[in-house]
Amino acid sequence: MTVEYIRYRIAAEQQPAFVQAITSANQLLAAAPDCVRYELTHCEEDPELFIWRIEWTSVDRHLNGFRKSPEFGAFFQLVKPFYQSIQEMNHYAVL
């Protein structure tokens, strides 16, 4: 299993639209066979920071499965407006 962490900095006025987009995108993740779990967290010390944590069966199945699936187009359209707000997007191995 691998965990993808996507760290965002979202201005206060964009946060309602951001949360709605991630909520809708999570519905597509729920249907993805290689997505194990996901959660969006909001920093309590810095209210502009969010971390979207997505567990995948493997990096390969994320990149060559979900990202090449027909569902990815709809997923990407939801999150694309916030792409420039990403501060980190990496896969981490669970130890």
Compact summary:
The chain has 95 residues and is α+β, with helices and mostly antiparallel strands.
Walkthrough of the structure:
With 95 residues, the chain is an alpha+beta fold. It has one domain (2-93): Alpha-Beta Plaits (2-Layer Sandwich), CATH 3.30.70.100. It is built from 3 helices and 4 strands, in the order E-H-E-E-H-H-E. Strands 2-3-1-4 form a 4-stranded antiparallel sheet. Helix 1 packs antiparallel against helix 3 (71-79).
List keywords for this structure.
95 residues, alpha+beta, Alpha-Beta Plaits, four-stranded antiparallel sheet, 3 helices
List the topology elements.
Elements: E1 2-9, H1 15-31, E2 35-42, E3 49-56, H2 59-64, H3 71-79, E4 86-93
Antiparallel strand pairs: 1-3, 1-4, 2-3
Strand count, sense and closure of the main sheet? 4 strands, antiparallel
- Into which percent range does the helicity of residues fall? 25-40%
Our measurement of the CA-to-CA distance between the termini, rounded to an integer number of angstroms, reads 10 Å
Uncertain runs with pLDDT below 50, 5 residues or more?
none
Total helices: the number is 3
What is the residue-mean pLDDT, rounded to a whole number? 97
Order of helices and strands: EHEEHHE
- Strand percentage lies at 25-35%
Number of domain units: 1
What is the number of strand segments? 4
Strand order of the largest sheet: 2-3-1-4
The name CATH uses for the topology is Alpha-Beta Plaits
CATH class: Alpha Beta
**What structural class do the secondary elements suggest?**
alpha+beta
Shape: globular
CATH architecture label name:
2-Layer Sandwich
Q: Could you tell me the radius of gyration in angstroms?
A: 13 Å
